Amino acid sequence: MEQISFEEWKKIDLRIAKIIDVKDHPNADRLYIIKVSLGNEERTIVAGIKPWYKKEELIGKKIVIIANLQPKNLRGIESKGMLLAAEHENNVVLLTVDKDIKEGSKVF
Predict the structure, then answer these.
(1) Given this model, what pLDDT does residue 67 score?
(2) Which of 13, 19, 23, 48 is the most buried (most CB within 10 A)?
(3) How far is the C-alpha of 96 from the C-alpha of 71, rounded, in Å?
(4) pTM of the shown model
(5) 47 pLDDT band (50/70/90 cuts)?
(6) Degrees, nearest 5: CA angle 65-27-42
């Protein structure tokens, strides 16, 4: 595993985001187009979690995202962030919060 310095790690901006809408990606079988709220702004994130989650399961979840990634075009849709998930034995689980935390809150 490649190591990064603490100074590099501090550049990563992790935030709490609330999922407010989920749509199927028109050009990909495994991707969702997810709209999230960061409190003072909304963003679109494209994520490959369709095999593990139904759209209705995702609405209202508070998740952790990387908020300061450069936007990336994924199959024709601009994604402005990346959600965090864990993979174990062919299962993917979103990193969520277990308390009512305001959207946009910084994760340390």
Answers:
(1) 97
(2) 19
(3) 22
(4) 0.91
(5) very high
(6) 30
